[in-house]
Amino acid sequence: MNAVSERLTPRWKERRGRLEIIEEVLFAAREGARKTEIVYKTNLNFTQLASYIRYLEEKGLLELSGPLFRTTSKGNEFLQDYQKMKEVLRTEEA
Description:
- This protein has 94 residues and is mainly alpha-helical.
- The protein has one domain (3-93): Arc Repressor Mutant, subunit A (Orthogonal Bundle), CATH 1.10.10.
- Helix content is 62%, strand content 9%.
- The chain has five helices and two strands, in the order ααααββα.
- Strands 1-2 form a two-stranded antiparallel sheet.
- The longest helix has 21 residues, at 73-93.
- It is globular, with a radius of gyration of 13 Å.
- The mean pLDDT is 90.
């Protein structure tokens, strides 16, 4: 299980930050996903998700393609860069 898929399991004791939620939404939409699927994978409600979708679409990280939301190439670059940043920070903490 990789770090991102581990992140998609609900964590009841720890609050997620905005960047973590953005990572989860983009990860859930990599192959294309309906809103309901993203809600289940990210443990957000529809109102919260709508806010993130608007923001990510405005930034060019997520797009609506028919009935599915898809992570754009820019969104995939963000995921890669964010993962590298987390690895660097994790290495420095060890």
